[in-house]
Amino acid sequence: MTLPFIIDVTIGLVFIYLILSLLASEVQELITTVLQWRAVHLKKSIEILIAGNVHQSEEDSIVELVNDLYDHPLIKSVNQEAKGFLTILPRKLIWFISTLPVKLSLSGKKRTNSIFGYIKNSLGETNGAKRSAPSYIPADTFATTLMETLGIPQLVEKLTESRLINFAHQQFHSMQSILIKLREQTYNSDESVQKFLDNIDQDFKQLEYEFQIIITDYQKDKADLVTSINRMARSLDKFIEIFELDIPDNPLISKTLQRLKLFRKDIFDDIEATICLQGLRPNINEVVQLINVGSTIHQEFINEFKDKDSEAYQTFQYLCQKLETFSKKLPPSVIENMATLAKRAQLKAKSTEDGVNILRQEIAATFDNSMERASGVYRRNAKGVALLIGISIAIIANADTFHIVSILSKDAAIRTAIVNNAGQVVQSNSVNSPDEIKRLQKETNSLLEEITLPIGWNKLNLEQQLSSTLDPKNSTLFNSYLTMLFGWLISGVAISMGAPFWFELIGKVVNVRNSGKPPKSSVKAEDEDK
To answer: Hey, which end of the chain has fewer CB within 10 Å, N or C?
Structure first.
């Protein structure tokens, strides 16, 4: 038995494995598409990520939250579905088939639940069950969707708005106290002083109106926080200039002017310091903790807004009501996980905007890490399915490895035909993309019409496998059946290894064979010597 002979038999065996592996890949892809394994596995992985563990991932609150995520426009845009009657008709059949395993394996309420959630209108009413979902979600899309579903950006806006309103009212009341004290001190003053105070009251009402305009513009997103406070400072500067312009000769009024100037300097000279000291930019950890209704931080925020008649309290009260309703549906594990990520984000953040962006990045990184583990689980499950498909194909095709090797060893014509065609296929193809795999499938299918492979349930193969006789009294028949069984198992395992593996291997073997073949000139010289 020479080395070229062994290589040719190996090429023949590997080429048959390659053909059957291509068939197995096509079958597995069909099953994966019909049952939507990738989409189902992705949704289950997200439920585990949100819950923190497998056991809690089936809780109604977790499933409902993930369904809300899947109902977000960003994730809905990832799941592209074709339209048209001819396209929808086969998809409906696939959707129906994909629901059968769920309905057969579950009972009770879970049996009627939708795998991917429900379609809802603008009022939140359910219009029907979702039939499909994306098989892949980008990490940034998931992070943005989760933050918007939890309402974190809205929390930042509302909390900043409430604190800005509270800040404006506090400063206004502080200035009002200064003016009230002045009027009390000059109660019995002359007419010019009283007239001045009346004019100042009108100017102060104008200042109050301007403060209200500034807050309204901020609420309508016409100005940011720094611009709004700068506008308050300019309005106060104008009021002080008017105050100083018509000031009468009175020591009490002069002292009041100095108080107003000191007040303006203390509050508005350093805008960033004021924003920091007044907590006008809430840090991301505070915002996330605010979701946890009943927590210490949440109670501190409630105590911060004491005046129940103020606009700031009403704005914050509306926010609290929304949070209380939302937190009842929110699983505790989500709050804990988000709080952990928020603390990490706060250590790196320099502002609220930085905190929100860093938190989004932390969520995206956590999602990527979780999906890597989920991909490993999916590959292991897919490998198990591939093994079952491989063994099934080996039995259905009667691909007995021992029989294949035996025929390739004995039949030079079949061996030569397979080896030659295998070399052509390897040289003209690759398996670096799905399109190239499909082209390889077409070429191998056309080759099967020209080559008779030693597989199948035909009479000749069976006689060769079963010791040339099908007589039940033959003592060697049991051993032949046992050999067939082990041959199928070996073929099944080989098929499950996948077409790319066998294509790469056959390419290497063909290269070894070609490099080991002697040049034609040397062959002719040897023939002449003989």
So the answer is: C
pLDDT at 307: 60
Question: What is the pTM assigned to this prediction?
Answer: 0.70
Say which residues have a Cβ less than 8 Å from residue 82's Cβ, sequence separation at least 6: 88, 91
* Domain assignment of residue 451, given as a range: 3-26+390-529
pLDDT in tens, 281-317: 877 777 777 776 666 666 666 666 666 666 666 666 6
Residue 126's DSSP bridge partners are 120
Q: What tokens does 137 get? A: 């979600």
CA distances from 117 to 145, 332, 434 (A): 16, 21, 31
DSSP 105-160: H--THHHHS-SS-EEE-TTS-EEEE-----S---HHHHHHHHHHHHTHHHHHHHHH
Final residue of a structural domain among 107, 137, 167: 137
The arithmetic mean of pLDDT across residues 210-214, rounded, is 92
Mean pLDDT of the chain: 78
Q: Is the pLDDT of residue 327 over 70?
A: no
- Is it the case that residue 527 has pLDDT exceeding 60? no
In the block, tokens 């059957």 appear at 20
Do 335 and 397 belong together in one domain?
no
Pick from 254, 253, 211, 216: which is nearest to 233 by CA? Answer: 211
Rg (CA), the chain: 39
The total number of structural domains in the chain stands at: 3
Measured between alpha carbons, how far is 462 from 414 in angstroms, rounded to an integer? 18
| Length, in residues, of the chain | 530
Alpha carbons 59 and 68: distance in angstroms, whole number: 14
Residues in a beta bridge with 119: 128
The secondary structure of residue 282, as a DSSP letter, is: -
Domain boundary among 137, 155, 190: 137
Q: How many CB atoms lie within 10 A of CB 208?
A: 16
304 Cβ contact list (under 8 Å, min separation 6): 163, 166, 316
Quick: pLDDT tens for 1-27. Answer: 677 788 888 888 888 898 888 889 888
Cα-based distances in Å from 236 to 170, 233, 257, 515: 14, 5, 12, 90
